[in-house]
Write a structure and sequence with these properties.
Distance between the termini of chain A: 46 Å
Structural class of chain A: alpha/beta
EC number (chains A, B): 3.5.-.-, 3.5.1.77
CATH class of chain A: Alpha Beta
Pfam families (chains A, B): CN_hydrolase
Protein name (chains A, B): Carbon-nitrogen hydrolase
Largest sheet of chain A: 6 strands, mixed
Strand order of the largest sheet of chain A: 5-4-3-2-1-14
GO molecular function (chains A, B): N-carbamoyl-D-amino acid hydrolase activity
Helix content of chain A: 25-40%
Strand content of chain A: 15-25%
Order of helices and strands of chain A: EHEHHEEEHEEHEHEEEEEEHHH
Number of helices of chain A: 9
Radius of gyration of chain A: 20 Å
CATH architecture of chain A: 4-Layer Sandwich
Oligomer: homodimer
Organism (chains A, B): Bordetella ansorpii
């Protein structure tokens, strides 16, 4: 068997953040979960996407209003600094999602990776923005990520920190197999992500149970196919009446769920993850260098949407 | 809701084919299952990979011996012709996997698509060949696909036939997300495949239950992520003492298992599949043209194996 390289890996699921909740109230909850994760042996904690505020893309408003109320112009800032201080004091790193407004005024759906000294070592800006950019007054709520955010300007990334090679994604990215492949091709061992997934699909009457099903099968298959640990943190439950799924999980490279949240509230999962578990797959069934055939994958980068069948030789 | 375009879609799982079994014995079983599928409303039947013989890549032998015993130099040939005749008589098409030796002597692991008039309308030669090409005398059996077969010389394909756009894959192809993406980017509505999956992993002591788990999560996630029906037919059970998993399934574009084999023997599954079910996903969460970002997928075609992290700008 491969060498065991164990890492305490935590997911901190969050219950609802309501419109009336302040950043200070939210950070207090994050600090409590960071401390619990530390006490249970975690070296790193994964927090949700847009963790500091309610999932505001559900509300129609002007960009300027959204940016004033829900975006962070600096990170850390005074509200979040105590979390960074705890990280350094306890020696526990974290992943945190928030709405970023850059110095040049560009809005991104962003995640950062903070190491065990409290330093920001990586930043990822969401590439697969779901939803729409127009007002849908007949829908029960909006999904305005394509309005409020710009598509990430940098590639999918992997950072070598805290004893592991860690890739970052955000929410809808997890449904796209390309996301995971871009990270495993950069030698990721762990993929971390936060999400806000409404229980109701506003586009068609999708059975509600499918939302959780799609979340889980996608994470399980992607962890297996890319030989990585996957750690996914939900913000969930009913935010001012708008419900989102829970189901935060830590998935092993075997595709098995090693830990799963059982509430729709603040809840910490910790797994003592053997990073070597992915090696057995990387060296055999998914030895990419021996088995992948990029010469047969051309359409993945040549086409955006679906098109006609490729030409073929006559059948011999 | 989308228009309902129903299609009777069948999977014909096969129990073992032993070394002593003749092609004629096997074709008799295939014909029985084709007739059953027809009686239950199927317009098309999916048979396994290498359906006409035992899974011979488990045995070390010279290529010339393998080709003489286990390959087909013509298709249809006298042994298989009765299956083609039944297809035309009943008006039921099929997918069939077999070992192909071309007129120029090139060996492929091949699948054909035969329409309801008994005509071969498509041929696919396996791209993701698993296993090894050297003799491993200490292993309990061999997995010599890389020795006995050449990598497919044509792209992943989709054929417009029998009222649907049908993509073909074979066995190990199903574990690679690129396979499915190549087909959905050619507008596939159904992906059909056969497989022979040994229950024991000869490369490392993998828990046996994971073989079925990986098979199912990969099919479910891939069907969902690509908005296709997936129909997968096993050859399974113990062939001369070498056991392979069953678990033949028809998976909906929802990622749900619509039908699953419950034996390790010859067994027919039929689903009246609504091809329109995939459209709801194609038009929303997986509207590729709106959501895919090929400019961020470059490594998928540029790299074969994993490498270093991509360069990034300084964190601002």
């Amino acid at each position: 068997m491969a060498d065991k390289r164990k890492m305490g890996l935590a997911v901190a699921q969050m219950g609802p953040v309501h419109l009336a909740d302040t950043r200070a109230m939210v950070v207090r909850r994050l600090r409590d979960m960071l401390a619990e994760a530390h006490g249970r042996g975690a070296r790193m904690v994964v927090f949700p996407e847009l963790a500091l505020t309610t999932f505001f893309p559900r509300y129609w408003m002007e960009d300027s209003e959204a940016q004033a109320r829900f975006f962070e112009a600096t990170m850390p800032n005074a509200d979040v600094q105590p979390l960074f201080d705890d990280a350094r004091r306890l020696g526990v790193g974290f992943y945190l999602g928030y709405a970023e407004l850059t110095p040049r005024g560009v809005p991104y759906n962003t995640a950062i990776l903070v190491d065990e000294t409290g330093k920001i070592v990586g930043k990822y800006r969401k590439i697969h923005l779901p939803g729409h950019d127009d007002h849908k007054p007949d829908a029960p709520f909006q999904h305005l990520e394509k309005k409020f955010f710009t598509v990430g300007d940098e590639p999918f990334g992997v950072w070598d920190t805290m004893g592991a090679r860690i890739g970052m994604a955000l929410c809808n990215d997890r449904r796209w197999p390309e996301t995971w492949r871009m990270m495993s091709l950069q030698s990721a061992e762990i993929v971390v992500l936060g999400y806000n997934t409404p229980s109701v699909n506003i586009h068609w009457p999708e059975p509600v149970h499918l939302r959780m099903h799609h979340h889980l099968i996608t994470l399980q298959a992607s962890a297996y196919q890319n030989c990585v640990w996957a750690a996914a943190a939900a913000k969930c439950g009913s935010e001012d009446g708008f419900h989102m799924i829970g189901g935060s999980v830590i998935v092993a490279p075997t595709g098995e769920i090693a830990a799963q949240a059982v509430t729709e509230d603040d809840e910490v999962l910790v797994v003592n993850a053997d990073l070597g578990l992915g090696d057995t797959f990387r060296k055999n069934v998914f030895d990419f260098a021996r088995h992948r055939r990029p010469e047969h994958y051309s359409l993945i980068t040549e086409r955006v949407g679906p098109g006609a069948a490729l030409p073929r030789n006559p059948i011999e």
